[in-house]
Design a protein that fits this description.
167 residues, alpha+beta, two-stranded antiparallel ribbon, rod-shaped, metal-binding, zinc, zinc ion binding, zinc-finger, BED-type domain-containing protein
């Protein structure tokens, strides 16, 4: 069987699994509350709202999605839902179907420096958009100026339209 879910580092196992269909019992190391040993259904939701846990821990579990991704090396016809995995499907049952559990690497919340960099990139993009609009406006103004000059020289409108670039 593979390793335990990362959320177990914040819990102590108080009762092991009685059989392959049952779940262990876990106790939060911060507040002592006992929960069912199912990471996604009970343990992570508990950490998200645990008032005794440090804010860094609660924030970590607010933003992280610790979902398990199912990889099907043998066939795409076998399917096991993520919910059934959380509800206690045994790893050996998955192996019998040719499936393997792969932990999903969570993405961390961007730090202040990264947020500033993202904001700077957004501002640069807006500047580029404004510059593009200004260039388009200048092109239009030059086109109209050329049209007026050609009309003042007596060039027919159909020739002007044929020779000036379109908008």
């Amino acid at each position: 069987m593979g390793g335990r879910h990362a959320v177990w580092q914040y819990f102590e196992e108080t009762e092991p699994r009685a059989n392959s269909k049952s779940h262990p019992k876990a106790k939060c190391i911060y507040c002592g509350e006992k929960v069912r040993g199912q990471p996604k259904s009970f343990m992570i939701p508990h950490l998200r709202k645990c008032s005794a846990a440090p804010s860094s821990v609660t924030q970590q579990w607010q933003v992280e999605s610790m979902a398990l991704t199912i990889v099907t090396p043998l066939s795409a016809s076998s399917s096991v839902s993520e919910a059934s995995l959380d509800m206690g499907s045994d790893h050996s049952e998955l192996a019998a179907e040719g499936l393997e559990l792969v932990p999903h690497t969570p993405q961390r919340m961007p730090g202040p420096a990264q947020l500033q960099q993202l904001e700077l990139l957004r501002l640069k993009a807006r500047v580029a958009q404004c510059q593009a609009k200004a260039a388009e406006a200048q092109f239009t103004a030059e086109r109209f100026a050329a049209r007026i000059k050609l009309q003042s020289l007596g060039v027919p409108d159909n020739e002007i339209d044929a020779n000036l670039p379109s908008l």
